[in-house]
Design goal:
Length: about 170
């Protein structure tokens, strides 16, 4: 039995039919998150990483010089600065990143990817791609549709604003 389908049936039976579809959708997304997170965690844990740690390493690896101000990392990852500090502390302890003074802003601290960090993020990304992302258990067309639906929800919830569409140059 699908417990979410049963919960929806109960919602309707108790007079909450107008909320039943949304309850089922929200519950489904939350359960799917648990399943997806578990799959990702099973790949990253042997590499000594969590998804939060991987996200920061991957973000740094995408930059030109492997460095970002801590505040920029917080904004781009959409997490509280305290969370970034905690992740950086753990990554620094494992010698995967280091902190440096910002060269032009005395108030800012850069988080810098080390050679070991670059190696680890590439290894983790290859493992995630091979074991999870190329075999997600969801058909490609559904993945695209799901991402689009969730992006609309996230945008409507204030998670991000649509980028400005500039005209093509003449």
């Amino acid at each position: 039995m699908d417990p979410i389908a049963e919960a929806k049936r109960q919602w309707i039976a108790h007079g909450w039919a107008d909320a039943a579809d949304a309850m089922a959708a929200f519950s489904s997304v939350m359960r799917a998150h648990q399943i997806m997170y578990s799959r990702v965690d099973s790949v990253l844990k042997p590499l000594g990483l969590s998804y939060a740690r991987l996200e920061l390493l991957r973000l740094l690896s995408f930059t030109r010089d492997g460095a970002l101000p801590m505040a920029s990392a917080s904004a781009r990852l959409q997490v509280h600065p305290t969370s970034v500090t905690s992740v950086v502390d753990r990554l620094e302890k494992d010698l995967l990143v280091r902190r440096e003074a910002h060269p032009t802003d005395g108030r800012a601290t850069l988080v810098v990817l080390t050679v070991a960090g670059r190696t680890r993020v590439e290894e983790a990304t290859a493992a995630l791609n091979a074991e999870v992302f190329t075999q997600p258990g969801i058909p490609q067309a559904d993945l695209v549709q799901m991402t689009q639906i969730l992006a609309r929800f996230r945008q409507a919830s204030g998670d991000f604003t649509a980028p400005v569409q500039y005209p093509d140059p003449l």
